[in-house]
Amino acid sequence: MKSIVITSGKGGVGKTTVTACLGRALAGLGCRVALIDADFGLNNLDVVLGLESKVVYDTADVIENRCRVRQALVEDVRNLYLLPSAHGYLGEKVTSQNIKLILNSLAVTFDYALVDCPAGIEAGFKRAVAACESAIVVTTPHMSALRDANKVVSLLASYRFSPTLVINRVRGDLEVEGKIPTADEISRILKAPIDGIIPETDGAFDLGEMPKKPFELLARRLHLGVGEPLDPAAEYRGIRGYFKRRARRVK
Ligand SMILES: Nc1ncnc2c1ncn2[C@@H]1O[C@H](COP(=O)(O)OP(=O)(O)OP(=O)(O)O)[C@@H](O)[C@H]1O
Ligand SMILES: [Mg+2]
Fold first, then answer.
1. Does the C-beta of 29 come closer than 6 Å to ligand 1?
2. Of the candidates 127, 109, 40, 29, which has an alpha carbon nearest to the alpha carbon of residue 69?
3. 11 CA closest ligand 1 atom index
4. Is the dihedral angle over the CA atoms 47, 216, 108, 77 positive or is it negative?
5. Which residues lie closer than 8 Å to 44 by C-beta, 6 or more apart?
6. Is the pTM of this model over 0.85?
7. What is the structure's pLDDT at 204?
């Protein structure tokens, strides 16, 4: 089983969204995937997946031996399961060793464990990172997110990780107009390769509204090592792209 922590430094850049959508895309490729909500303070992976009413046990019950890991898992779609975090559970009590033990018991059944990390670089970040064997850093193309992502990439190097990047909320029209950095520029700034590019999706109030294609491409790169990430700027280049950009500006 491959364990991947999804982290970012800056909050609100799309870690939980990427965890859920990537999980579904990997499951779509036939991989068995466990999503672990390691954001103990502000956990919401169950809500994002629309599974909150199905949650019976959570990580706290597993750690305190009230149930086995597989009893706490909630099925999302075929091949995809969630280990919910605990509402109100004191996150400080959870150690990276706790998460490691959970990952070890999942390794028998699953191909991937995606660990949704809390924002920041404090205790919650450290215990999630220490328990996993690889990392994805999610960032947006905006300066404040890039600065935090830079810190996280350096920190991950001290854990001997070579993380890959997922750039989220990319507006292709702004990229063509030079208002946000291109994927190549971001890769150079952060000194890390890019595995996924996710466009800004107008009105993406829930997961169902998120486009599937960019996550399928990301899943294929991670699992099969083939293909290129989506290029959200492509449709805004050339003469037709010019009119599309203008139309988006007036919206
Ligand atoms: N590509 C996108 N296009 C439009 N909206 C998005 C996109 N990605 C995420 N969002 C929205 O941004 C908000 C924050 O996303 P999300 O909760 O995944 O971030 P997070 O990094 O997990 O936040 P936190 O640090 O608080 O855990 C959500 O409302 C989500 O729907
Ligand atoms: Mg989150």
1. no
2. 109
3. 25
4. positive
5. 16, 37
6. yes
7. 67
| 2-250: CATH topology | Rossmann fold (3.40.50)
Domain ranges of the chain: 2-250
Q: Is the CB of 39 under 6 A from ligand 1?
A: yes
Comparing 180 with 39, which gets the higher pLDDT? 180
> What are the angstrom distances between the C-alpha of 66 and each of 48, 61, 63, 182?
25, 5, 8, 49
| Ligand 1 and 211: CB distance under 6 A | no
Q: Residue 223 corresponds to which amino acid?
A: H
β pairing state of 74-75 and 80-83: antiparallel
Which residue among 7, 10, 16, 17 is best mutated to probe the pocket of ligand 1, counting the most ligand atoms within 8 A of its Cβ?
17
8-state DSSP, 166: E
> Is the model's pLDDT at 92 over the cut of 90?
no
Pick the closest to residue 23 from 219, 227, 233 (CA basis). 219
Q: Whose CA is nearest to atom 29 of ligand 1?
A: 205
Sheet holding 33-37, edge to edge: 74-75, 80-83, 33-37, 112-116, 2-7, 134-139, 164-170, 194-199
Residue type, 139: T
